[in-house]
Design brief:
This protein has about 250 residues and is α+β, with helices and mostly antiparallel strands. It has 2 domains: about 1-130, Jelly Rolls; about 140-230, Orthogonal Bundle (Arc Repressor Mutant, subunit A), CATH 1.10.10. The protein has helices at about 95-110, 120-130, 140-150, 160-165, 170-180, 185-195, 205-210, 220-230, 235-240, and strands at about 1-5, 5-15, 25-30, 35-40, 45, 50, 60, 65-75, 245. The strands form 2 sheets. The protein has a 6-stranded mixed sheet, with helices on one face. A 3-stranded antiparallel sheet has the order 5-4-7, with no helix packed on it. A hairpin with a 3-residue loop joins β1 (about 1-5) and β2. The chain is globular.
């Protein structure tokens, strides 16, 4: 797994997740055998590549144990400026063209020709052919996002964020949703759950990890992680025992 605060590349076990809801744009790529994906009450679709917009509940299944997952944080990209494939939901119409480039990049990784990506732009170019267009943000909201990224394991209240940019809480919440596209509470919950990925190679007690990640207790931690990933924290850690973890700076 390679990750920074803006992107994630996961090549590993899929497990048997229940309904999951990520706060990022999510791209699933099959290694060999097509996977199946369904959105809430929709029928299952089958393909080698599928796209899930931020905040959309979905189920994914495959007879193949391994899967490739790409996560793109929604606050880092302009939704209107994204390639057409990433603005779709489900199996994109140009699946075969996209797969050719992605599989070539994955083969380079497996062959040792690619160790990591120094920046998010390198990641985008490798998998999508170009750097994805950045989202235009109010400088005040941008400063809050930077603060949250630099202390992602801390509990940032709306009041603290509003005070940091000298506006009322109601004004802050309005500005945040207008700029980022989702409510502040949803965004914070996703970032807290996403921070779990930085712990998956640690041997620490799950209760201590829950507290470090900003959860009030292990029960809340377990329920929240399961609602996001469709898997319990224990299952996630068990599935990542053989995983190699690489991290890099954003940008």
């Amino acid at each position: 797994m390679w990750l920074n605060t803006d992107r994630v590349l996961y090549v590993g076990l899929l497990g048997t997740p229940s309904l999951r809801t990520f706060g990022s744009y999510t791209v699933y790529v099959s290694v060999n055998i097509p996977h199946r994906i369904a959105f809430e009450a929709d029928h299952w679709q089958m393909g080698h590549l599928s796209i899930v917009p931020p905040g959309v509940p979905h189920r994914i299944a495959s007879s193949e144990k391994m899967i490739v997952t790409l996560l793109i944080e929604s606050e880092t990209v302009s939704a209107a400026g994204l390639p057409a494939c990433l603005r779709q939901r489900g199996i994109p119409t140009d699946e075969l063209r996209l797969l050719a480039g992605m599989h070539a990049e994955l083969e380079a990784i497996r062959g040792g020709g690619r160790k990591a990506y120094a920046r998010s732009a390198e990641f985008d170019i490798a998998f999508f052919g170009a750097a994805l267009p950045p989202r235009t943000l109010d400088p005040r909201i941008a400063s809050v996002l930077t603060r949250m990224k630099n202390g992602c394991h801390q509990l940032h209240s709306a009041q603290e964020c509003a005070d940091s940019i000298c506006v009322s809480v109601s004004r802050f919440l309005h500005l945040f949703k207008e700029d980022v596209g989702i409510p502040f509470r949803n965004f914070r919950a996703w970032k807290r759950a996403r921070s779990l990925l930085t712990y998956v190679k640690q041997d620490g007690n799950l209760t201590n990890i829950a507290l470090d990640a900003g959860y009030p207790d292990s029960t809340h931690f377990s329920h929240s992680i399961r609602s996001v990933y469709g898997l319990t924290p224990r299952s996630i850690f068990a599935g990542c025992r053989q995983l190699q973890l690489h991290s890099a700076v954003a940008g």
